[in-house]
Please model this.
Amino acid sequence: MRLIAVLLIALFCSLICYAEPNAEYPVRWTKEVKIQKLRDIDRLLDEPVDLSQAGEGAELILTNEDGNKVKVTTCREYLHYKDQDYNAFTTYDITMESWFILRSGTLEFLKTAWPSKVSYISDFDFRHSKKIIKYLPASLVLSFHGVSEEDIKGSEKRPLMTLAPKIKGIIKDEYNLDLEYEDSYCYITLLAFGDYNHDGIEDMLLHVAHHYYMGSGRGYENVILTQKEKGGQWTVLD
Model:
């Protein structure tokens, strides 16, 4: 029995080494993410998403094209119904959906990501990146007023300031950055790090919230950014 146990441990270790050869940077997350351990992810997918900050009785209702409605409480339910083409249609449900986008996107990123062999962002945070706006890709914030469809074509390869030269950045803390442009706002939260596309280079997960001033227009998404060289242009991963 002892020999079998030793062989199983050796096999397990060899599989880890094969999957992550020479990995130096572990999958990790910021204090904005309420997760204790990676092995908890499957369980957390089945836990109700915390909507307490949205007020008493807050809930998310998704609707399909036939008008069928479902109440969603967990990330696993949310991901399932999104795959079935259920969506949030009212302003209220779009706002409630933001909590599910943030939570389920973070869990899916951490579940998929590998430790990284190379990192150009290992010490990244917004406080130490005063010039971050110069390197953010334009496709990160496509909801700014005054930016046309023609402008944003191919924007994933262009810096943000080429589309919004008068954009203003406000660094709130190491994990949160606010962007303002005319009557549009974009709130960015840094969530996690890991090799998401398994190319050996560390990527980062951001949650992005778009709002229009004095209007109901809003949208929420998770964005994965990567950097191929130190101080280089950021690009968005599909």
Summary: Helices lie at 2-19, 41-45, 75-83, 91-112, 132-135, 149-152. The first helix runs from residue 2 to 19. The radius of gyration is 20 Å. The CA atoms of residues 135 and 233 lie 5 Å apart.
